[in-house]
Amino acid sequence: MNAIIITAAGGPDVLQIQSRPDPSIGEYQVLIQVKAAGINRPDVLQRKGYYPAPPGAPADIPGLEVSGVIVALGSAVKRWEIGDEVCALVPGGGYAELVAADADVCLPIPTGLSFAEAAALPETIYTVYDNVFRRGGLKQGEHLLVHGGSGGIGSTAIQLAKASGAVVSTTAGSADKCAYCKRLGADIVIDYKKDDFVAVLKDQKVNVILDSIGGDYFEKNIDILAPDGRLVYINAVQGKQVAVDLMRVMQKRIVITGSTLRARDVTFKAQLTREIGAFVWPLIGDLFKPQVYKEFELADAAKAHACMEDGNFFGKLVLTI
């Protein structure tokens, strides 16, 4: 098979297409002929040498989400058949013509979606569902603040929170990105390059914050959260070391939590898959639509990574095969 290989830690140019042996599958896995693969910031971190693949995943082939057609079944797989069209969360190896996936972490491609749109679903939906609704406990009528609403995670969080009946505020870094967030349904949109989100939201009751920024946003998040608020971290691109005023946390009874998804075991991901299939999949196409900004051919993975690092895009970038 052809695959995109991280030939060394470095910039986008270290991504090269090479031939590799087809992956083998275990008894509880399926082999997927990949039609499209979503691109995510963890792929960029892996390429730079900061985010190694977990044990058992290809060490030098990035890619955490795919869509495609099942072409082989493990001996214990009962749910799927050869020829089924699925999208799947994978621990790595998605930038390739074939990838092995755990059968219990696959979902059917929703009716009406292209392979590219389906490939943009798993990583962001799993992350948002687990962190906003399970860990953050967002409920109907509550207020969610999403930092970085114009990206893959942000665009997913806005749509799913609105579908659940929440009020949504978000930050974004340009007039175009703010307008995009408004179109997705955000109630309050703040251009963080012009306005301080604490000043804008000081009279709002913010119950849950989804943050990938870290750094000095931490204290601002504590300031803006309502009593019994939940602060959920999924990254810390502006710094992972922060000062904590424990008295303020206690006085407001704030829950500070967060998670990473890639290294979680299959049992956890399978349970998450079942919940997402039951509660999120019925919303797709009506209340939620995957946001694919641009498609790149597999051989152009370096250009796709350069686009992601440039930041001038909305929603998701996808490789097509």
From TrEMBL:
UniProt KW NADP keyword: yes
CDD domains recorded: p53_inducible_oxidoreductase
Keyword NADP recorded: yes
Highest taxon, organism lineage: Bacteria
The Enoyl reductase (ER) domain, residue ranges: 10-319
Keywords: NADP, Oxidoreductase
Membrane spanning residue stretches: none
Name of the protein in its database record: Putative PIG3 family NAD(P)H quinone oxidoreductase
Organism from which the protein derives: Sphingobacterium paludis
